[in-house]
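Q: what does this look like with magnesium ion bound?
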Amino acid sequence: MKVALDHLTKIYPSRTKGGAPVRAVDNFTFEIPDGKLIGLLGPSGCGKSTTLNLISGLEAPTEGKIYFGDDDVTDLPPEKRGVGLVFQNYALYPHLTVRENIRFPLENFRGKDKLTNEEMDRRALEAAKLVQIENLMERKPAQMSGGQQQRVAIARALVKMPRVLLLDEPLSNLDARLRLQTREELRRIQNETGITTVFVTHDQEEAMSISDMIVVMEKGVVRQIGAPQEVYDDPKNLFVAKFLGTPPINVFRGSVKADKLMIGSEAVLDIKGVPDGDITVGIRPEGFVLNENGRFTCELSRVEVMGRDTSVVSTHKCMDGVSVRSIIPSEDKVKPGKTVRFDLKPSKVHLFDSKTGERVYYEVKK
Ligand code: ADP
Ligand code: MG
């Protein structure tokens, strides 16, 4: 089921008396392709949950429309939309067994949709198998780990065979190892069922690793949509560039002078197509190439060998932030000393307008 968001806007009155209204979601237009997993990504408060709640029908938009396939569902209540919801806190019924928790949504079917006891149990077992908890059906939530409880919540969302699956930070309460494992499981389940899924997270690595496409939001506004690698490689603005990647992109105050990209007094790249003036320079950690005669000089702080890669930590007076983090292959040995010099890989050097943060594209001069 494809899901179309058409100029979707949600404005909340301020929580404080006399404060300005909050544009939690601001003019969001996007068509989620059928059967894909979309990662909705951004810092806390950027409007992820509000977007999800608009899709589920828990919230009504101030403006705009939502379509499931060709159906306008904007005015449909949540229970009529055929969505499965999973939240960060599993919200299971503590006095019910796993089986009873999973089949709970089916008990409400009335009239011609009413299911027999056997049919409900059969469907609950099927959903439980998808998340691999079929051997825990008679347990109560308190007798299970957080990861197992979240699987029950996912099974409960799947049991109605939803048209759309909506997950709001579903892994945030799990410890690191379980998070990894459960996110792989989610990807597998989504692939097996083919249910169009929106996955909300503030964790860029999590979103990058499981999504077919990511949507990066800032203060209610969609800043970029694309395949994870595409957004990482080609960020449209400084916000997106900084939000994706660990270690994060290194940001410097630079300038362009007569086709030379300058950081401090050094001309670090020869470029074309950018007028003279101040510019913000973003360099991915993997964009540094160790070279004794390199064009970019930093003050060496320390070298951290991490097996295959080496992390070189340095400082620079034009740096926005504490330290410059570069990742180089461990075969490249850093000579001890006060400074370290690099050449830069142009594909990993992104320029941004110093005032607006919008990307400024350049050509490399040969
Ligand atoms: P996220 O899920 O990305 O952390 P939310 O969608 O929960 O963000 O919130 C987006 C913005 O809307 C925030 O500024 C939040 O404070 C505000 N907001 C959310 N719900 C309400 C509400 N019921 N009343 C007023 N403001 C709200
Ligand atoms: Mg939220």
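The longest strand covers residues 22-32. Helices lie at 48-56, 98-107, 117-130, 146-158, 176-193, 204-210, 228-233, 238-243.
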